[in-house]
């Protein structure tokens, strides 16, 4: 997968601007926060009034959220909220709404299990397939990370760039897409830790070990270095 393909595929979630976009965001927020609970039927005239939108705008918002798995409809109940277990957490918008509403520690644990099954394998593929462009992106992220001793917020951004670049460097189109799930959760977790106590052990060395294995085309070394990085992250941010 080329980097240009990746950039194109990363273009926005449900898209749109203005009143339609705002209606989707507002209705999704009410669902994810629990204002409308699982199984609740939406009284559409009331929702129209609450959101201060027209019937056409609300209909489009309902259509978007139905496609994303938050809503469904049948003849008996009309439009209703689907069970949370049915929501498409692999959808970037759904994940963003979920993170904004707040998540529990077991949510982060589930994502860590997902990362352990994906990122070491992606690093191994990167060691085999990486291009000079891939290495440049990884080096740029490492360089940014190395200069963030006193600015944890910038370190979070560099960390996000690193993991995105590593997934792209696998040159597997499916792994490359997983940055949409993995990176927002990394950012949310690190921000939560920063807000709680501001304590971060500098991560540059552990990330650099992964990059050096990729640079050397050491497939097994890249796999193990990424696994060690994830284990370190789990210990520091349980």
Automatic annotation (TrEMBL):
Gene3D superfamilies, per the entry: GntR ligand-binding domain-like, Winged helix-like DNA-binding domain superfamily/Winged helix DNA-binding domain
Cited SMART domains: FCD, HTH_GNTR
Origin superkingdom: Bacteria
Pfam families per the UniProt record, alphabetical: FCD (PF07729), GntR (PF00392)
Keyword terms, alphabetized: DNA-binding, Transcription, Transcription regulation
Keyword Transcription: yes
Domain (HTH gntR-type): residue spans on this chain: 17-84
PROSITE patterns tied to this protein: HTH_GNTR
PANTHER family: GNTR FAMILY REGULATORY PROTEIN, TRANSCRIPTIONAL REGULATOR, GNTR FAMILY
Entry protein name: FCD domain-containing protein
Naturally occurring in which organism (per UniProt): Streptomyces mooreae
């Amino acid at each position: 997968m080329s980097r240009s393909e990746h950039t194109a595929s990363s273009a926005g979630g449900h898209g749109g601007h203005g009143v339609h976009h705002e209606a989707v965001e507002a209705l999704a927020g009410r669902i994810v926060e629990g204002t409308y609970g699982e199984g609740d039927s939406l009284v559409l005239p009331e929702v129209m009034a609450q959101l201060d939108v027209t019937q056409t705008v609300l209909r489009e918002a309902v259509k978007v959220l139905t496609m994303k798995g938050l809503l469904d409809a049948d003849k008996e109940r009309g439009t209703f909220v689907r069970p949370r277990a049915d929501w498409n957490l692999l959808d970037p918008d759904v994940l963003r709404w979920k993170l904004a509403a707040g998540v529990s520690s077991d949510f982060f644990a589930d994502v860590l299990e997902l990362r352990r099954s994906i990122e070491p394998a992606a690093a191994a593929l990167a060691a085999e397939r990486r291009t000079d462009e891939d290495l440049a992106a990884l080096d740029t992220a490492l360089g940014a990370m190395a200069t963030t001793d006193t600015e944890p917020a910038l370190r979070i951004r560099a960390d996000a760039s690193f993991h995105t670049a590593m997934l792209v460097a696998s040159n597997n189109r499916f792994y490359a897409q997983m940055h949409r799930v993995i990176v927002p959760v990394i950012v949310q977790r690190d921000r939560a830790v920063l807000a709680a106590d501001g304590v971060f052990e500098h991560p540059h060395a552990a990330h650099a070990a992964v990059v050096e294995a990729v640079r050397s085309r050491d497939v097994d070394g890249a796999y193990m270095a990424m696994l060690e990085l994830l284990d370190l992250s789990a210990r520091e941010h349980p």
